[in-house]
Amino acid sequence: MSKSKEDSNIVDVLVVGGGVNGVGVALDAAGRGLSVTLCEKGDLAGATSSSSSKLVHGGLRYLEHYEFRLVKEALAEREVLLQKAPHIMWPLRFRLPHQKHLRPAWMIRIGLFLYDSLAKRNLLARSKKLITSSKGPLVKDISTCFEYSDGWVDDARLVVLNAIAAQDQGATIQTRTECVSAQKEGALWNVVLRNDQGKTFTVKAKSIVNAAGPWAVSFLDRLVDIKNPNAMRMVKGSHFVVPKLYDTDEAYILQNKDGRIVFVIPYEEDFSLVGTTDEDFQGNPLDAAISQEETDYLVDVVNTYFKTKITTDNIVHSYSGVRPLLEEKNASAQELTRDYKVELKGEAGEPVLLNIFGGKITTYRKLAEHAVDKLVSCFPRAKKAWTKEVPLPGGAFSDKASLKSELQSSYPWLSASVIERYVRQYGLLCHKFLTGVSNVDGLGQDFGAKLYQAEVDYLISFEWAQTVEDVLWRRTKHGLRLSDAQKQVLSHYIEGKVTSLQQRSEMREIA
């Protein structure tokens, strides 16, 4: 039986927010048979979800705050995610240099034993103690490290891949579209949306999922007659990128005398990523930027541990993200829990509101599953949870080496470095812009560092990229490699391409 025109504008679930939690909920709900629309006022992963430390981890330091449930869930999810998305995630060994005046060896040993033991299926190597070499990157005063396993993730691509998967399941993904207001009308929400072209339209929804991240509390002010008793603390975390500090593949977790820790992580082949800080933040999360105090703090920690010294002049890029954390009385910014809260509101016969507060990138899938489990109490026809075993788009391959070999055979004219990047950014999705191409010239213009026109066109047409920042910092990390002049050329190309696609879309609507 077909829907009436009025019913066709009614969705089961309207998700507000295109960060990792929002797209995770959209995917889970759409796969359970619910009709889903997601709106995001900017780009996917445009705020907190592209500004993380890029780790899939249990959170070793959370054990000091007795958050055993959170660590256990995160470690279990670490294993799940490494299998679901082998292109954008991979195992990473961490070294914790021992400074006995900061944390005694017995405490670290106990922590690592718990960390290994809490993992449900430990697919990764267990922790161990090792003696450092005089040829290593650390200063000579450090003779001992403790080594353990966690994982790395391209956080922004994780969000985009979930959005692609949600769309494949039937969800509608609307970026650059803000939720202006929502009010109850009988059993439905009457929601006003406005896109970046100034067009306003209405959607009727049986439920709203508030996954607005740092805006989750302020978003509730746009909902008529909704009160929010929850208190959130906005905490800024900042990172910077420098030319790589050492040539090996491990990451470092550095203790500081104030009790905090700093990560140094191999990044994009030629760089090291350093972070993060924790400080309270007020204002618009989009305005967050690294302060001089944060920069000096991170530089000082790095220089305390490594033979290679850095200054602010070595920094090639920096970013800051604002994390919405659950408020705790008398807790410092670094002590606040990274756990999450999922809250369902709505009486019988009323439209439903589901609020998501807090969370961390490693547990996004579990958070989404938990949220939709609550939501489906209102949708008896919904199917069961399903996302645990299903690969994310592009990730249905056995291992990176095999995929590299396949691509080298299919596209022998591609350089090894380009194939390497395609494997870890797109996995099997790279066939979407490579199939039918017989030589490098067929990929079109090289905008710099082998970022070809065919790839850019794919990102605009299939991954919601609309600006040069979308392409250079969230879909890829080529912002580290292109000159200002090259960025300007790329920006003009993207603007023209996006404008052309928008004009065609408007003509189709008129027709």
Automatic annotation (TrEMBL):
EC number: 1.1.5.3
Pfam families from the UniProt entry: DAO (PF01266), DAO_C (PF16901)
Residues covered by the Alpha-glycerophosphate oxidase C-terminal domain: 387-493
GO biological process: glycerol-3-phosphate catabolic process
Cofactor: FAD
Reactions catalysed, as given in the entry: a quinone + sn-glycerol 3-phosphate = dihydroxyacetone phosphate + a quinol
Keywords carried by this UniProt record: FAD, Flavoprotein, Oxidoreductase
Keyword Flavoprotein listed: yes
Keyword Flavoprotein (UniProt): yes
GO annotations of cellular component type: glycerol-3-phosphate dehydrogenase (FAD) complex
UniProt-listed InterPro entries: DAO_C, DAO_C_sf, FAD-dep_OxRdtase, FAD/NAD-bd_sf, G3P_DH_FAD-dep
FAD dependent oxidoreductase domain: residues covered: 12-329
Molecular function in Gene Ontology: glycerol-3-phosphate dehydrogenase (quinone) activity
Main EC class the enzyme belongs to: oxidoreductase
PANTHER family recorded: GLYCEROL-3-PHOSPHATE DEHYDROGENASE (PTHR11985), GLYCEROL-3-PHOSPHATE DEHYDROGENASE, MITOCHONDRIAL (PTHR11985:SF15)
Family: Belongs to the FAD-dependent glycerol-3-phosphate dehydrogenase family.
Protein name: Glycerol-3-phosphate dehydrogenase
Organism: Alteromonas genovensis
